[in-house]
Write a structure and sequence with these properties.
The protein has helices spanning 19-30, 46-53, 68-78, 92-103, 120-130, 152-157, 165-175, 190-199, 207-216, 218-227, and strands at residues 36-40, 58-62, 84-88, 107-111, 138-144, 178-185, 235-241. By secondary structure, the protein is of the alpha/beta class. A seven-stranded mixed sheet has the order 3-2-1-4-5-7-6, with helices on both faces. Helix 2 (46-53) links the parallel strand 1 (36-40) and strand 2.
Amino acid sequence: MSNKVVYVGKDLEAMSFAVNYHRWILDEFRTFLGKSVVEVGAGTGSFSEMILQTEPDALALVEPSGLFGDLKTRVHQNGANRTRVNFYHSIFASVAKEIVERQKPDSIIYVNVLEHIEDDEAELRLIYESLPAKGGGRCFLFVPALMALYGEFDRRLGHFRRYRKAELEEKCAAAGFKILKSKYFDFAGVVPWFVKYRLLNSESLGGGAVSLYDKMVVPVFRRFESRVRVPVGKNILLIGEK
């Protein structure tokens, strides 16, 4: 099976305006994060900056697209505190061995990246193999959910799929992971996404709309979803342990 990657940059960099959204994701990850972290598909570094705030000992940032230069500039400008940061202008499959030898990662993060990889099951096995042999390492996944929401916009972004929660759990378990956390995420985003990208066939995300949603909707539904386990969501968040 091919391990083809169709990836042109982190899911539109309009998402760099989604500060509250990214902080919500990281806070779901935070308790489980180790001190030697890899972020695959780091884009321009909007999420990387937040990872650095947790002060890991080491952070490898992997980005294959033309956004790599912006990533390096952003991280250098904002400083890395005491964290040792290494940059890789590549896909993870090509540099995993080097990262393991150089850093011995205990936490590997994919935020809006796994859906770009045709053979996602091979990628999950690679993540598993790249974590410590004695176990305890963790993968952190954030992916788009629900094939009912899949449309031309997803295809244009290079998405091979959107996931069901059970499907993602099964693929992670088949790779060897024990599921520590798995949940639908962003219940409020399901209907707007369906209307905009399935019914209206919009071809853009738009920084202004993202910023408004981030400021007005995300704080409210973050509190709601902290109290209620939602049956569906626009995304899925999963943490697996080796």
